[in-house]
Amino acid sequence: MTDNPPSRLDLLLFARRVVVQQATASLRQIDGWIAEEERREAERRRGEEARPAEAEWLVQCGLNRRNVDAVHVGDCWAAKKSGRCRPVTRAQALEALRQQVKACMHCRPDTTLGVLD
């Protein structure tokens, strides 16, 4: 039995099948990465949508968490730094200022609320 070596055409067709197989596998892998990234992006968007709105007004509690030390505007950097703040309504912030709770010297909620001494 004589074995004929593969022709140049046979070798080229074989090389093409190998390239197609590798490209298909690579595309499958890239499609998986794309699907995973789309899932992460959708999850991030859902998280942003579910996040509660930032409070417009904050009161800073004392170290004992009972007395109120200061009133802040909701996006005040000093309030975020203290870590002892809780959200309140506009009316509660106004009432706290009327009760002589000090206004934050950085965000000046008394000016924003129109309550000046």
Helix content: 40-55%
Mean pLDDT: 89
Q: Please provide the ordered H/E string of secondary-structure elements.
A: HEEHEHEH
- Proportion of β residues? 5-15%
Measured on Cα atoms, how large is the radius of gyration?
33 Å
Distance between the termini: 110 Å
What is the strand tally? Answer: 4
> Helix- and strand-based class?
alpha+beta
Identify the overall geometry: rod-shaped
Question: Largest beta sheet, briefly?
Answer: 4 strands, mixed
What this model shows, in words?
There is one protein chain. The protein is an alpha+beta fold and 117 residues long. Helix content is 54%, strand content 15%. The chain is built from four helices and four strands; from the N terminus they run αββαβαβα. A four-stranded mixed β-sheet has the order 3-1-2-4. A hairpin with a 6-residue loop joins strand 1 and strand 2 (68-73). The longest helix is centred in the first third of the chain and has 43 residues, at 8-50. The radius of gyration is 33 Å and the shape is rod-shaped. The protein starts with 7 loop residues before the first helix and ends with a helix.
What features would you highlight for this structure?
117 residues, alpha+beta, four-stranded mixed beta sheet, 4 helices
Give a brief rundown of this model.
Helices cover 54% and strands 15% of the residues.
